[in-house]
Write a structure and sequence with these properties.
This protein is 75% helix and 7% strand. The protein is mainly α. The protein has a domain of 83 residues. Keywords: Membrane, Transmembrane, Transmembrane helix.
């Protein structure tokens, strides 16, 4: 009986959802936008992972003469950094490329493993469920770790300096923008902008999905209320 009630509520909720053209169109449009954005994002991840438009660069910390302060500076090679007596060297370009590559494989591999999961289900349902759980858990953990790592690498002090958003003392924002956009600039501006807009889009899409989820929940909630009233 409970299964019949649940089926009735689900059918009524789906009917409410499909009959409300505004909610239906809004949800469908959100799903289409999400799919398009996701595919575009995946393509750009591959481009930035294997053909990154920014130049190879090392970041080093330099001591200021006659002062205890330390400044950051970018170098085209590790040898140039060592020759300038830089410390705390970080291969910033490789770090950002590693983040793009990590994300690309994290999003692509689950689709590549679908045949393996299907075959395991055919062989043995229990093994199939175990494989599905392992793949889902591994991908979820990888996405969370990748997402958090990107925030730390992009918005750390080193990251902000490398992508050109941290204006050093003694320079105006206009001078700094001209310097970062120069043809011979070593700043990872394009990679930094890509990461910035990615996290911004994630925020916007999450808010959109929350709104759609609330509207769908309202449809099914109304169906539940109507069903309860008719049962009484």
């Amino acid at each position: 009986k409970k299964m019949e009630e649940l089926s009735t509520i689900s059918s009524q909720g789906w009917r409410n959802f499909t009959q409300n053209k505004a909610i239906c169109c809004c949800t469908s449009l959100t799903c289409l936008v999400f799919t398009g954005v996701w595919l575009t994002f995946l393509i750009y991840l591959g481009v930035y992972a294997y053909n990154n438009p920014d130049k190879d660069v090392w970041l080093g910390h330099m001591k200021v003469e006659g002062d205890k302060a330390v400044t950051m500076q970018l170098f085209p090679t590790k040898e140039a950094l060592d020759a300038a007596n830089g410390t705390s060297s970080v291969h910033m370009h490789e770090r950002l490329v590693a983040w793009f590559s990590w994300g690309f494989y994290t999003f692509v591999l689950p689709f590549a493993l679908i045949p393996v999961v299907i075959c395991s289900f055919i062989m043995n349902p229990v093994v199939g469920f175990i494989c599905q759980a392992v793949v889902s858990c591994a991908c979820s953990c990888s996405i969370i770790a990748w997402f958090i790592t990107g925030i730390l690498w992009r918005w750390s002090t080193d990251g902000q300096f490398a992508v050109g958003t941290l204006v050093p003392s003694g320079k105006t924002e206009e001078e700094w923008m001209e310097l970062t956009k120069a043809d011979d600039s070593l700043y990872q501006v394009k990679s930094g902008n890509f990461m910035y807009y990615y996290y911004l889009l994630v925020l916007i899409l999450n808010c959109s999905f929350c709104g759609c989820a609330c509207m769908v929940a309202c449809c099914f909630g109304c169906a539940n209320i109507k069903f309860s009233s008719s049962s009484d």
